[in-house]
Write a structure and sequence with these properties.
By secondary structure, the protein is of the alpha/beta class. It folds into three domains: 13-45 and 62-78; 102-366, Aspartate Aminotransferase, domain 2 (3-Layer(aba) Sandwich), CATH 3.40.640; 369-488, Alpha-Beta Complex (Aspartate Aminotransferase, domain 1). 42% of the residues lie in helices and 12% in strands. It contains 15 helices and eleven strands. The chain has helices spanning 12-32, 61-75, 94-106, 117-134, 148-163, 167-170, 190-197, 218-230, 253-262, 318-325, 357-366, 368-391, 417-433, 461-478, 480-488; strands at 141-145, 179-184, 205-208, 234-241, 266-270, 295-298, 311-315, 395-397, 405-410, 440-444, 447-453. The strands form two sheets. Strands 1-7-6-5-4-2-3 form a seven-stranded mixed sheet, with helices on both faces. Strands 8-9-11-10 form a four-stranded antiparallel sheet, with helices on one face. The longest helix is centred in the C-terminal third of the chain and has 24 residues, at 368-391. The chain is globular. 44% of the residues are buried. The structure holds pyridoxal-5'-phosphate.
Length: 489
């Protein structure tokens, strides 16, 4: 921009040119995603950071836009690629990308109904749809969050308020003993953070060991609750995970609900990843018991193919949301609608982005059955991959495959854990070296594992086959020579 042009107001034809440029580029990008490399080959990867001074004067928007787009395209890391096979971040539906653009342009402020009646109505409808799929027949409510971490934090806050509403004004000192809660050793670290943020302290989270199915050990859970009660602690919540981050395991939610009920504890389901199975009639029974939860976290920006960010917290105690977060804002008129809540009264956020439109539009345009088809297809691909691992002499499963997340490791005879971990690391590095595809490393119940996931709706049998070939080639290069060497010793 010329030094004289100090307004943000671009003229009609410039807006149009830039807008069309964006659409054309995104359109091309989407056309490339089925075969796009996830990142550059290892030797070409480097940071784009350069310590330049702040631009005092603007420059030509078309040139800037073109340059940054090309940089991000050529040097970026493409989660949206069909070859992104290592974590639970999806290819966003194209409709959701359009919805995001609309949200950015209209910039609705969902804090209050007064300023967002139309947008708040869409959001309420989206919450209704998800709650209905959970199977809730009773009254429920909820709110969109930035993601699963905020949703889990909110759930724990509600559980505390249920335990004693005085914590809102007087804090934890209104409790007669230190409050503690329970989740499996495989549950997400956002629970540790939440415990810290709520002032409970991270030690308040009792991490219970898992079975060889990677589900919380129910006997140990009950023993831990009893032991805490005997020692004068105040148990207040049990968290079940529907789709662990490491292995996609689903806790036995029915029994956890039963145990929670028996001890009068809040039952939260962290379904950030796996609760999406409720969208499939065929597979929803995997999360059986979710309908018994007091609250559920679900991240549409994981398995429901939404761009960041979109999380949800739903609860069958909607009045507690208002109790926990209700406050006064003298410059706003309270919602006059019996159906719509002012979002700032039911969440920790004040300014509130419309994170719901993308899911609402995807459901409107494609329908729930498209999610069912997606889930069914990915479950089939994952089952086929797990079977291949099982039958392979090079690899072995580390945990049973339940969702489209497969954790496995190299099969080294007579090797210790450290050696296997090193071999897994080398293998993942080798597979990721070209940049064409991406898988990840993790530790499942303290065992090193290679993690693959089928998460993109663009991933097909061909991508999975190419991954198998890449894994075998890497194993031949890295592991076979070692075994031959060992035999000849
Ligand atoms: C089971 C589970 N819960 C919570 C989270 C946190 O979600 P977010 O990254 O959206 O905050 C994750 C993220 O991977 C997760 O897998």
């Amino acid at each position: 921009m010329q030094p004289t042009e100090t307004t943000f107001d671009l003229d009609y034809s410039m807006r149009r040119r830039l807008g069309y440029m964006l659409v054309d580029k995104i359109n091309e990008y989407y056309g490339s995603l089925s075969h796009r490399a996830v990142q550059l080959p290892r030797r070409q990867r480097r940071s784009m950071y350069s310590p330049e001074p702040i631009p005092e004067w603007g420059e030509d928007p078309e040139i800037t836009f073109e340059r940054v787009f090309d940089d991000l395209l050529e040097k970026g890391f493409h989660i949206a690629s069909a070859n992104y096979l290592g974590l639970m971040n999806p290819t966003p539906t194209f409709i959701s990308v359009l919805a995001e653009t609309l949200v950015a342009a209209l910039n609705p402020q969902l804090a209050s109904v007064e300023r967002s009646a139309a947008a708040s109505s869409i959001e309420r409808q989206t919450v209704d749809w998800v709650g209905q799929r959970i199977g809730w027949k009773q009254r429920f409510g909820g709110t969109f969050t930035t993601g699963g971490s905020e949703a889990n934090l909110t759930a724990l806050q509600l559980a505390l308020v249920k335990l004693n509403p005085a914590v809102i004004d007087c804090g934890l000192r209104s409790l007669k003993a230190p409050a503690v809660f329970y989740a499996s050793s495989e549950s997400h670290h956002s629970l540790d953070k939440a415990a810290g943020m709520l002032g409970l302290g991270r030690h308040a989270l009792r991490r219970i060991e898992v079975t060889d199915q990677m589900q919380i050990d129910l006997d140990r859970l009950e023993r831990a609750i009893r032991s805490d009660l005997e020692r004068g602690y105040l148990p207040f919540c049990v968290v079940g995970t529907a789709g662990t981050t490491n292995a996609g395991a689903i806790d036995n939610l029915m029994w956890m609900a039963e145990i929670s009920k028996q001890y009068g504890l809040w039952f939260h389901v962290d379904g950030a990843y796996g609760a999406a199975v409720i969208f499939s009639d065929r597979y929803r029974s995997l999360a059986q018991g979710i309908e018994l939860a007091d609250s559920v976290s679900l991240d549409p920006h994981k398995w429901l193919a939404m761009p960041f960010s979109a999380g949800m917290l739903l609860t069958t105690h909607p009045e507690l949301l208002r109790q926990a977060y209700g406050t006064k804002a003298p410059y706003l008129q309270a919602s006059q609608s019996p159906e719509l809540e002012d979002n700032f009264q039911i969440s920790s956020q004040w300014s509130r982005r419309m994170n719901s439109l993308k899911l609402w539009m995807t459901l409107r345009v494609h329908g729930r059955v498209s999610y069912e088809a997606l889930i069914d297809k990915q479950m089939k691909l994952a089952a086929g991959f797990a079977q291949w691992v099982n039958e392979s002499k090079r690899f072995e499963l580390v945990a049973p495959q339940v969702l489209p997340a497969i954790v496995f490791r190299v099969n080294l005879q007579n090797a210790g854990e450290a050696e296997i971990a090193a071999a897994n690391r080398a293998l993942v590095e080798e597979v990721n070296r070209s940049g064409q595809r991406w898988i990840s490393l993790t530790t499942v119940a303290e065992r090193s594992a290679i993690r693959t996931m089928v998460i993109s709706y663009l991933t097909t049998e061909t991508h999975v086959l190419e991954l198998k070939n890449a894994l075998l080639a890497a194993a031949e290069r890295l592991i076979a020579p070692r075994q031959i060497f060992e035999r000849s010793k």
